[in-house]
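pasting for ref
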Amino acid sequence: MKIGTFVLLVVAVLAGGWLWLFFPHYIDQVKMQDCAAQAAATWASFNDEGRARRKFEAQAKSRDLPGTLGIELCDFEHPPGRFIVNCHWTVDVHIPVVDTWRRLSFEARESATPDGHLE
């Protein structure tokens, strides 16, 4: 086996391991961002925070978010002229090869105008 092939194989294995460990959490972040956007738009359109919370929960369920990611991680803020849904959470990822942990921090923040348009 040539040295170049060996190096390429090692890089591919390391990249695959990184994807296997971290990528699912970034997919969850995208899903949470979409749930926050739907909730903010609903809240702005109907001026009903309870309805926005129910929309968030329905979207989270339909997108198969893990049970640890839910509405309790989100703040609903209503400064004048804006409806903001801000979710933030951390995930501890175990890296088995070196037996260490890595903390990932995520935020999903969406804002809507009173007419329901996302900013």
